[in-house]
Amino acid sequence: MNCGPPDQLPPATAPSCFLNLNWDQSMDAAAAGGHLDPALSSMVSSPASNSTAAAAPDGLALHGISPRPHYGGTPLSSPPKLNLSMMGQFHHYPPPQVGGAGAGGLPILENLMPVGHLDQFLADPAFAERAARLSGFDARGAAAPAQFGFPDAGPVGASKEMELRNARGESSVSDPASASAEMPPLKGASDGNARKRKAPGKGKGKDSPMSTSAAKEDSGGKRCKSMEESNAAEENSGKGKTAQSNSENGGKKQGKDSASKPPEPQKDYIHVRARRGEATDSHSLAERVRREKISQRMKLLQDLVPGCNKVVGKAVMLDEIINYVQSLQRQVEFLSMKLATVNPQLDFNNLPNLLPKDMHQPCSPLQSSHFPLETSGAPLPYISQPQQGNPLGCGLTNGMDNQGSMHPLDLAFCRTMGSHHPFLNGASDAVSQVGAFWQDDLQSIVQMDMGQSQ
Amino acid sequence: MDIKSTPPPPPHQITNPSRRAFLAWAAASPSKPMLAFHFLRSLSRIQGVTPVRRRTRTIRRAAYSSMARAASPRRAWSRALLGQARARRSRTLTGRALLLRRRVTAAAPAPPSSPAARSARIIAAGGETSAAARPLPPRQVGDPPRADALRRLVPGGAGMEYCSLLEETADYLRSLRAQVQLMQGLVDLFSCQ
CA angle, corner B58, sides to B153 and A356, nearest 5? Predict the structure, then answer.
């Protein structure tokens, strides 16, 4: 039991030893993250005064996390999230007295894991992003998250803490957007970055507002360079289907970018700007474009399908769409059954009335003509007017496909309409319109008929 | 041919709510008059010709055909629908097959034993299924889980990517809704007399 002497904080020994116990357990078993977290929280929430050792809890968290890949236990993804999110909450607490426990814990953990492994762990872009978010949570930037501050630890712990702080300082300014994990030592801008990183850090989870999630800060040329690299990569790979990001997206950035790459807007394919915190290779960019297209179309569909406004989520939306399409098809079936049983009161009178002039205008030109759909008396005798001269036996039972067979039918329509039509003044121009649409010889026949009937 | 001796009401009195409603509906979107034209024309044909027992099916097919005609030919679903109608027509109406089918239906549900009928049907069926059994593009492995149900519903949806499937679905929905509205209007019109 190498629980170091926590001279500042006697009560912290218990948590630290507890931590150590848990630590040993976590070495063997997988998925001990749950054990680790309460230990961490108990440690951190206990009051600590000083703010010197910056990254000890992070170091603890790091150490808590990093052995896992080495010991092949839990996957790396879930514990970091747990630990760091908890760490993120800790800044609300008064500066905790974690010092003794931390200092005590550090040498312990040092034995288990050299600090050099931190780099490998820090190279994880997801972790780097979260570390950046953490650093953004405290307004003091890399100076120290006083919440995690330690009191003046012993010399053993101090050296380790300094090392960790440097490492953490690097992580805090590392560019989360660069998957290449380059760590630009922009410590000078780290404070400003940390402050401004809050918004993009939070906005990263959002899907649509690319502009808000764009890095609005000017974190030096590194980000521009990564953007340029991504753009260059995407242009060189010849991807032709990337979507144009919003123009206000990093307007300052585009100023810098366009200066260095003038031919960018002149290319004829659409450009995508990789958002902050995302991978910038061409595959993920294309994937993101595709996802955005899909979400765009889902929104369109959402407007079409009634009652889908409150539904959130693609799966449920898809189900709703399927149900709606099925219900519409069933309605078509049902209505066709009803129309089949309805007496053939329709047809000849309706047809010419509904024909617009050249099939592309609404029925306004026909308003002067009759619309005897509602006059039941007049249509009935029309029915006795069968399509006598029409070779309907040419197999048009299943709907019309060839225009050639239409003409005799239309001729019959015109004839019947012209002869039986009570509203000849209105019908004449309608029929002439229809005739003009059909063919000239038909028109002549129609006018002949109308002359005869009058 | 005699005219029924009901005096024609002057045109300005025929502003019926149903007529106004119909005109408003038809003016709502540019494809609706086309829809009305095609559908009513085919309806009028059907009413006169088709025997009653098969009228439902025929009217339904006419509805889909008129939908496809009124839609833009750029749409994959309209092309697929018209292709289906054409295939159906060619399958049912090749001369010998028609005769054989009549004989078969007259002879009750016994399967036809004549090789000609079988070969004709097989050829026609083979023509259709070969068109339908084209290999699917590999993109479809990345679909969300219910996408295949949507593909089955939307005509021509089997060979599309998910992205264009959604777009086709939107257009198909619009057209379907217009068709349903038209048919509902017609039913109302003729049932209230």
Answer: 90
